[in-house]
Specification:
The complex is a heterotrimer of chains A (216), B (201) and C (173).
Chain A lengths: L2 H24 L6 H4 L16 E2 L1 H10 L4 E5 L3 H6 L5 E3 L2 H6 L7 E5 L3 H13 L4 E5 L2 H10 L8 H10 L13 E5 L5 E5 L22
Parallel strand pairs in A: 1-5, 2-3, 2-4, 4-5
Antiparallel strand pairs in A: 6-7
Helix pairs in contact in A: 3-8
Chain B lengths: L13 H21 L4 H9 L4 H22 L13 E2 H18 L3 H9 L3 H20 L4 H4 L3 E3 L3 H4 L4 H34 L1
Antiparallel strand pairs in B: 1-2
Helix pairs in contact in B: 3-9, 5-6
Chain C lengths: L12 H19 L6 H15 L1 H5 L2 H6 L9 H20 L14 H22 L3 H10 L3 H20 L6
The chains are: A alpha/beta (216), B mainly alpha (201), C mainly alpha (173).
């Protein structure tokens, strides 16, 4: 092989090494701006402890966007986790919380089936220096209701539908969740009919008015 | 200005499609430059005689990985707006295996088959046609394996999150492994060439 | 002496790889997404099915997802693949590597080669649908983004490829 090519290869290798070593020293790329702008209420810093919450749809959006420094922790027992859990969630207990390094830019969302446990976990994280610790408001139930089987209505219907389908959910229309509704017929007799319709999958648009990202 | 450009450009609009076309030209260009539009050369990877595929792929991965890290670090790119392909554990392992078997039979992958076809190679055209058929048939059959298809869903999960390490540290490991791999690759090629020369004598 | 211009040698693989990586990086920066190939074929498949039997598309989530609102020519990946065709063509043209032929091993007939090409293509199509991508979208793009699924895909694909290549090495010698 000729000399210039050897030099080029060596230069590339040296550049890659230098950049990689520097990356390891630096540790993390900059935190995604979106995390900071999440709407969780008053936006105050957590000093005195008040559990900050995030709703299921917001969490779903974070997961879907691939927010890089997001950890979702499921504090329920193992069999509950295995039955179903929020996608990308890890099973965890309080011991795990303690060992979770609090990195500057990490956002941690915890959930369980017990509000008290959620609050304790969140307090625990805040005390350990996690600046972006949230509780998933409503826990796994909220995830199932609001993301996996949301009832679509209003302006956000398309966005919610797309988000739900991304996670393999089944959005539905109708003003009742598969409940029976009663209609009054002209002669006073009552008709009961089930009103749980599932919208057929059509390419809906997300919050930016675009069709959901497809694969590769 | 922060990249990626506002999402309204990212799909469907003329600006986004212009980017798509330009990126595609670059993609096709470099694949052909490296010789990856030629099935015999690609197969060299699997016969260990010509490890160009490995060298190109991992040079590209390392370049893009380092570039993205540093652009994000300097605030030029907002990482949360870069789409990370989702993980579906079992379908991707199994799909990978099926894909790999096909690639070894065809000698080309979908992208390189397009390059091959564009440069006049009939086998490239046939591979692309077969790929189209395979996608079509499998897509139509998907509802029958919906459960499997959606299994192991982890969202946009990255290695640094799973391994609970800092992104920068993982990048160093990947780069070190790639560079070591390149050294090994050079040796393997030379060893293979010597062996073949001996056999011919 | 032959009047044909000899074709130029291929570029150094590391240089080409860095070039490819920069293109991938540009894609991340300008479009917020990486490269891909299989998605373009999926869009084509969805469009074809839609033309023949629209009902089959609406009942199929995968096809619906890949059927763009404005038709295939407004699909990011389809336009990207058109670029790939152009880029590959131009590079080959400039290097004297354009040639109408079927590339194959010395002892393989054209029929054998094309049969394997077809079978291999079909298998790759199945694998790519299951894995949500191929070597461009998963291995290259997903690999650079450190996606877990992408690296699982790379592992599975290369392991099987080596096995199958071992079994079929006769056809390439």
């Amino acid at each position: 092989m000729n000399a210039p090519m050897i030099t080029i290869r060596r230069t590339l290798a040296a550049a890659a090494t230098a950049l990689a070593v520097s990356a390891a020293i630096v540790g993390v790329p900059a935190a995604p701006a979106r995390m900071a702008s999440a709407d969780v209420g008053d936006g105050e810093r957590v000093d005195a402890f008040v559990a900050r919450t995030v709703d299921a749809l917001q969490l779903a959006a974070w997961i879907r966007e691939g927010a890089r420094e997001l950890r979702v922790l499921d504090l329920r027992n193992r069999s509950a986790y295995e039955t179903s859990h929020v996608p990308s969630a890890e099973p965890a207990d309080f011991a795990r919380l303690d060992s979770l390094a609090s990195r500057e830019n990490t956002t941690v969302v915890v959930y369980s089936d017990d509000d008290v446990r959620d609050a304790q976990a969140s307090a625990n994280l805040a005390a350990r220096g996690h600046r972006h610790a949230y509780v998933l408001s409503g826990g796994m139930d909220a995830w199932m209701d609001d993301v996996m089987a949301p009832v679509l209505r209003g302006d956000s219907a398309d966005y919610v539908a797309a988000l739900s389908r991304y996670f393999g959910g089944a959005p539905r229309t109708g003003d009742a969740r598969g409940q029976q509704t009663t209609t009054l017929r002209a002669n006073g007799a009552r008709d009961r009919e089930s009103k749980s319709s599932v919208e057929p999958a059509t390419a809906a648009t997300d919050e930016f008015g675009e069709t959901p990202r497809r694969g590769c | 200005m922060s990249a990626p450009l506002p999402l309204s450009l990212a799909t469907g609009s003329a600006g986004a499609l212009a980017v798509a076309f330009g990126v595609g030209i670059g993609f096709g260009w470099w694949l052909e430059r490296a010789g990856l539009g030629s099935a015999p050369k690609l197969m060299g990877q699997f016969h260990l005689t010509d490890l160009t595929v490995f060298k190109v792929m991992f040079s590209a991965i390392v370049t893009a990985m380092l570039g993205l890290f540093w652009l994000a670090r300097f605030g030029i790119v907002d990482l949360s707006r870069v789409y990370v392909p989702e993980t579906f554990v079992l379908p991707q392992i199994v799909g990978g295996m099926v894909f790999g078997a096909g690639m070894a039979l065809a000698g080309l992958c979908p992208g390189t088959s397009c390059v091959a076809a564009a440069t006049g190679r009939g086998d490239g055209l046939v591979v692309a046609g077969g790929f189209f058929a395979g996608v079509l048939v499998t897509a139509l059959a998907l509802p029958t394996m919906a459960r499997f298809y959606g299994s192991g869903a982890r969202g946009s999960l990255t290695l640094d999150a799973v391994l609970d390490v800092e992104t920068g540290s993982l990048i160093l490991v990947v780069v070190a492994a790639a560079l070591a791999g390149f050294l090994v690759a050079e040796h393997v090629e030379q060893w293979k060439a010597r062996r073949l020369a001996e056999v011919e004598r | 002496m032959s009047a044909r211009v000899a074709s130029r040698a291929y570029a150094d693989p590391y240089v080409a790889g860095v070039g490819l990586g920069l293109v991938l990086l540009a894609s991340f920066v300008l479009a917020g997404r990486g490269l891909g190939a299989s998605g373009a074929f999926a869009a084509a498949a969805a469009t074809s099915v839609h033309a023949v039997a629209p009902g089959a598309v609406t009942g199929n989530a995968y096809l619906t997802e890949h059927l763009g609102a404005g038709g295939p020519l407004r699909d990011w990946l389809v336009v990207e693949i058109l670029g790939v065709l152009v880029g590959g063509f131009v590079s080959a043209a400039l290097a004297g590597r354009l040639a109408l032929r079927v590339e194959r091993g010395a002892h393989a007939t054209i029929r054998q080669r094309l049969g394997a090409a077809l079978a291999g293509g079909v298998l790759m199509g199945g694998g790519a649908v299951l894995a949500r991508g191929c070597t461009s979208g998963q291995a290259l793009t997903g690999g650079a983004l450190l996606s877990v699924g992408a690296w699982l895909f790379i592992g599975g694909a290369f392991a099987m490829a080596y096995l199958v290549a071992l079994a079929t090495r006769r056809s390439w010698t």
